[in-house]
Design a protein that fits this description.
The complex is a heterodimer of chains A (839) and B (299). Chain A has 23 helices and 21 strands. Chain A has 839 residues and is of the alpha+beta class. In chain A, the strands form two sheets. In chain A, strands 1, 2, 3, 4, 5, 6, 7, 8, 9, 10, 11 and 12 form a twelve-stranded mixed β-sheet that branches. In chain A, strand 14 and strand 15 form a beta hairpin. In chain B, strand 1 and strand 2 form a beta hairpin.
Chain lengths: 839, 299
């Protein structure tokens, strides 16, 4: 048992730095992975320059600090220039090192000489050319080029950084008008090397960031590398501009790392305290069983040091084995967390901190071993020779228990009064549980004594025996402390995990607006608003699954945002985010000149009841607030909803207008059909987002992962509760046998004795779980508003911090069943064994 | 060379190892249920080096308390306890533990309480020598010879202690007590719960230890057979020395305050409250004897 608890304790210590490291790495990986492919690269660009002042791509690569080169595969060198073909098509002529290896040639060959190009079949058609023909005037200095091959682009990931080089793109030109653009790949020799040539071109170097190579350390080094690069560019030694996401990622990750670095250790500290209590319980039980041996050692002249050496030598093996197993288990747990929980590819590896933490855990074990031996070693030999320790009676509160209880009480009050805030709040259930546990342990002998007296007056032998067994054993006090703390932590952490999950889901759903959302846009002029309505009606005539939303923005970002919706659809489709349903029906009111509007209390469009805001006409419309709700779907700042039909009656402008479709499904097939319908009515930029995707962002955050760690804490806490029950039975088996033998000889029936033993376990379990549950619920109530539910809290009031009663009750029932069964089985085994011994 | 070889015994080395015991004005009061209880109320006692003494008395008379005080397990409320030249009342706990491990061997009541159940017979004797060995002593006897001295069969020496007979277990407990070659052996009820044949084995072993090693032996017993073979007995009554037996003759002992506890059979004749006059047979020679005369009205 000692070895097992030492193993858990050392695991808790060693796994903390491992988990912090893995979570930190996962945070960096997640942030980098969340970047769009085009933004996931460090890019150096010379800009359009003649050969005389332009650094070559190789010179750019030479200037790239090693810390940045290590962040991904080999940098991609490119020379490019944008020219126009005779038919006005924009041609991006690019000599990209390795491009041929990442394209599939369907005809012809790769360019090998100056003036040779390859195109996609679509681009060749657009330029009206074929392999072997000359393409008029797309060269860097206006010279014609020859088409030597056609290519297919297998994918846009990896090397291509999200660039679609296959299709004809419509890219905004200098005057803002979209211009058809094609890519043409050529050999490096196409670009003039003559320093006297006036032709201009651009040198580029791109490092695609590999998320699996991004760690907090490499990120720090990358920040330094970017600073060096910027300094080089700023000093004029490198004629290039740096485009990079490192600074942004570093800024985001910095906050995440701060949270991870606090949440994880605090969670683990609670577990560590519980394990320290459990170890104390086990050690006290062990020392109690060694009392006769200790007495004999003293009688044989081994003095206190000798007796201590003997016990320590005996404990050394299980402690060392437990510590080694603990470190192995910590690495296994870290591996499991990375494999099953964190983003795939989160790297692990050896950690000096893990071994240092394991060492600290071992030191704690050593201190506990020495302290647990102290009372026995200080006891007179005659006291040690007693078959059982002296019975406990009266109100018992040791000085350190008093100090612990007072300290915990002060901390709990400080958290409750918000004098102490932040993630320390996570410890509040522990504080409350310690206060409860110490008080109940102190008064237990008194309560038991009264219970005995009352039972005896009523003739309840079994009840009196139960009370006597509970009251007189010192181990009962400790097991009650362990049970209360374990149950409090289990209830609290389960509550927090459930509430955190619900909050993440609610926020994601509200921000998405529904289960999923399709943003429909166009690279050219937006189709008329009615188009989106037409597309939805085609796919879903009854609007059971899809509904259109049209948003009209103010020119100013602080201005109101008008959202046109179909009220009946929204009642079915819009996300509620845990709040009462929005009174959509009120939008149907036709009374008055002003259109009815429902506004969000957290960010109203105006301070007055009637206000003006953008409409689909060329002038603002007038709106009247008919209801105020805490927040609205999509949770847009200064956003309000109004009836779409009435909004569309006001005009048909398309500037500052965005259209989207909310859906009750995230089925790709259904969303695909809707996407096709939107494309068919003229929307060529479609972006599909689901609440599940959005939720993943919150789950894969510092606070998300940190709070989910509570599941692990809850599991171990329950296990410790079971162990505590078993430990108290093991600790008291000697005195229990002596008691029962005496009672049997005094004529107490075996049935009564068995009943008393079982009842003792039941009372212990039920009182421990009940007190722990109360402490956990009080802790949740105190800590709820202070827990960092999100890495970046939402502006709108979607976060619920109150106790989740359904979860709390469920956990209490589960604990009662698990611990009750453990106690019942242990009680039955003990009473049977003792019965057999007495028979 | 071990302590118990023939040459040593012949030279009488062992006889010099017995430690004298002297107890003066011993008082011990303990608290029970909120009340002070006097377990010992002024005990004086002397056991010479190499002597044997049995402490007798009814249950609760204080004899086991006296033995615990002699073993240094309990500190007396008042008085002095000399074991050899050391006054136990002036030694620290550590010094008392060290003295007990090397100079005083203790056999507690119930043989099993003296032995570690997970060790075999011989290992238990070795364990009892551990403290002496750690202190640097090199003159410790071989455990086998110790066991042979008390009469443990060679076949039993490698057996676990719970696999040997009750008598053997008691002999092993005695062997463990004398393993560090102490000058004083204290035994609490060493023959309790043993049949008469086994009692003889234990008494013989105690005598062999006393005769061969010169070890002073003090036992607490209710066993008449054991007491009768101890040469000298001391009966403790109500926390005082009630009487002393020498060579089978029971003698009353005048206490430090002049009191004279009478044996029970005398008390039957002279009940409490009886007035007597104590006169010398010959006033010129007090050693000639004393007469106790009942006082009657008119005397």
């Amino acid at each position: 048992m000692v070895g097992f608890v030492v193993m858990l304790l050392v695991t808790s210590c060693a796994v903390t730095p491992l988990l912090v490291r893995s979570l930190e790495r996962a945070m960096v990986t997640a942030r980098v992975s969340a970047l769009p492919p085009a933004g996931r690269q460090i890019q150096l660009s010379s800009g359009l320059l003649p050969a005389a002042g332009r650094p070559t791509p190789q010179q750019l690569q030479d200037a790239l600090p090693a810390a940045l080169q290590r962040l991904g595969p080999a940098p991609v060198q490119e020379e490019r220039v944008e020219t126009s073909a005779r038919n006005g098509t924009n041609v991006i002529l690019s000599a990209m090192v390795g491009s041929c290896q990442h394209l599939r040639l369907t005809q012809g060959r790769c360019p090998s000489k100056a003036g040779e190009v390859i195109l996609s079949p679509e681009a060749a058609r657009y330029l009206n050319t074929r392999v072997g023909a000359r393409v008029a005037a797309p060269g860097p200095n206006g010279a014609d080029v020859t088409l030597v091959g056609l290519f297919q682009q297998p994918d846009t990931g990896g090397y291509w950084a999200g660039q679609n080089v296959h299709s004809v793109q419509r890219i905004s030109g200098r005057d803002g008008v979209p211009v058809p653009t094609v890519y043409a790949f050529t050999a490096g020799a196409t670009f003039p090397r003559d320093v006297n040539s006036p032709a201009t071109s651009e040198s580029r170097l791109a490092v695609m960031l590999d998320p699996s190579k991004m760690t907090p350390t490499s990120l720090r080094q990358a920040v330094t590398g970017i600073a060096q690069l910027n300094a080089l560019a700023g000093s004029g030694k490198l004629n290039a501009t740096v485009f990079e996401p490192i600074t942004q990622v570093n800024s985001q990750v910095h906050h995440d790392l701060d949270q991870v670095g606090v949440i994880v250790p605090l969670m683990m500290v609670q577990l560590l305290i519980l394990l320290a209590i459990m170890l104390w319980l086990v050690l006290r039980s062990y020392v109690d069983r060694r009392r006769p041996e200790l007495a004999l050692a003293r009688i044989r002249g081994q003095q206190v040091d000798g007796a201590r050496r003997g016990v320590i030598a005996e404990l050394a093996l299980p402690v060392i084995v437990g510590a080694v197993a603990g470190v192995v288990l910590a690495y296994a747990a870290d591996w499991l967390v990375r494999a099953l929980w964190l983003p795939s590819g989160t790297p692990g590896g050896w950690s000096g901190w893990a071994f240092a933490a394991a060492g600290a855990g071992l030191l704690l074990v050593a201190v506990e071993v020495l302290l647990s031996l102290r009372p026995a070693l200080r006891s007179p030999v005659t006291e040690l020779m007693r078959a059982v320790p002296a019975r406990v009676s009266g109100l018992r509160l040791r000085p350190f228990e008093l100090v612990a209880a007072l300290l915990a009480l002060v901390l709990a009050v400080l958290v409750a009064t918000k004098s102490l805030s932040g993630v320390v709040a996570l410890l509040s259930p522990l504080f409350v549980a310690i206060v409860f546990a110490v008080v109940i342990a102190a008064v237990l002998p008194v309560l038991a004594s009264r219970w005995i007296n009352r039972s005896l007056r009523r003739g309840g032998t079994r009840s009196a025996l139960t009370a006597a067994q509970l009251g007189r054993r010192p181990a009962t006090r400790l097991v009650l402390v362990a049970l209360v703390v374990a149950c409090a932590m289990t209830v609290f952490t389960a509550d927090v995990v459930a509430r955190s999950s619900a909050n993440h889901g609610d926020r994601a759903a509200v921000e998405t607006g529904a289960v999923s959302r399709i943003d429909a846009n166009s690279t050219s002029i937006l189709p008329p608003t009615a188009s989106v309505l037409k597309a939805v009606s085609e796919v879903d005539p009854s609007h059971r699954t899809f509904t259109p939303v049209v948003e009209v923005r103010s020119p100013s970002p602080d201005g109101p945002l008008t959202m046109g919706v179909i009220p009946d659809d929204m009642a079915r489709i819009a996300a509620t985010g845990g709040q009462d349903p929005v009174p959509w029906d009120k939008l149907k009111s036709q009374a008055g000149a002003a259109a009815p509007a429902i506004v969000a209390g957290w960010s109203t469009p105006s301070n007055s009841n009637e206000f003006t805001a953008p409409s689909l006409g060329f002038t603002d419309g007038t709106y009247r607030t008919v209801a105020t709700v805490p927040f609205l779907p999509e949770a847009q700042q200064h956003g309000f909803v109004t009836d779409l039909t009435r909004l569309m009656q006001g005009g048909d402008r398309t500037d500052n207008v965005t259209t989207s479709v909310l859906a009750t499904t995230d089925d790709p097939a259904q969303l695909g059909r809707m996407t096709q319908a939107l494309k068919a009515v003229g929307y060529d930029q479609i972006d599909v987002r689901t609440a599940a995707q959005q939720r993943r962002i919150y789950d894969q955050s510092a606070s998300g992962w940190g709070l989910q760690l509570g599941l692990f804490v809850a599991l171990i806490s329950t296990l410790i509760g079971v162990l505590a029950l078993v430990a108290v039975l093991a600790a008291s088996s000697r005195e229990r046998r002596a008691d029962l033998r005496a009672l049997r000889e005094a004529g107490v029936p075996q049935k009564t004795l068995r009943g008393a033993t079982i009842l003792e376990q039941v009372v212990l379990t039920v009182s421990g779980v009940a007190l722990g549950a109360i402490a956990g619920i009080i802790g949740t109530h105190i800590a709820g508003p202070l827990i960092p539910w999100f890495a970046e809290p939402p502006d709108f009031p979607v976060t619920q911090t109150s106790v989740d009663w359904a979860v709390s009750v469920g956990v209490v029932v589960a604990l009662l069943v698990a611990l009750g069964l453990a106690g019942l089985i242990a009680g039955l085994l003990v009473s049977r064994r003792e019965g057999a011994a007495g028979a | 060379m071990t302590m118990y070889d023939e040459a040593s015994l012949a030279a009488g080395v062992a006889a010099e190892r017995g430690l004298p015991v002297r107890v003066t004005g011993l008082v011990h009061i303990y608290r029970a249920d909120g009340h002070d209880v006097a377990a010992l109320s002024g005990v004086d006692l002397t056991v010479p080096s190499g002597g044997m003494l049995a402490l007798l008395g009814p249950s609760g008379a204080g004899k086991s308390t006296l033995l615990s005080i002699l073993a240094g397990l309990v500190r007396p409320s008042a008085g002095h306890v000399f074991v050899g030249a050391d006054d136990l009342t002036r030694l620290s706990d550590g010094e008392v533990d060290a003295l007990r491990g090397q100079q005083v061997g203790l056999v507690m009541q119930g043989a099993s309480r003296n032995l570690l159940p997970f060790l075999n017979v011989r290992q238990n004797v070795e364990y009892a020598q551990l403290a002496a060995r750690r202190s640097g002593r090199t003159d410790l006897p071989d455990p086998t010879e110790v066991l042979e001295l008390v009469g443990v069969d060679a076949d039993d020496m490698q057996r676990p202690v719970d696999r040997v007979s009750a008598a053997t277990r008691q002999l092993v407990a005695l062997a463990a007590a004398i393993a560090p070659a102490p000058g004083l052996v204290l035994a609490d009820e060493p023959t309790s719960a043993l049949p008469s044949h086994d009692t003889e084995l234990v008494v013989d072993a105690l005598h062999r230890v006393n005769d061969n090693l010169g070890t002073t032996v003090v036992v607490v017993t209710h066993d008449e057979a054991l007491a009768s073979r101890m040469g000298r007995t001391l009966t403790i009554r109500d926390g005082r020395v009630g009487s002393e037996g020498r060579g089978g003759v029971e003698l009353a002992v005048i206490g430090p305050d002049g009191s004279l506890p009478l044996p029970p059979h005398v008390l039957e004749q002279l009940p409490p409250g009886t007035l007597v006059r104590v006169d010398p047979v010959d006033e010129a020679d007090p050693a000639a004897g004393w007469t106790v005369v009942l006082w009657q009205e008119g005397d």
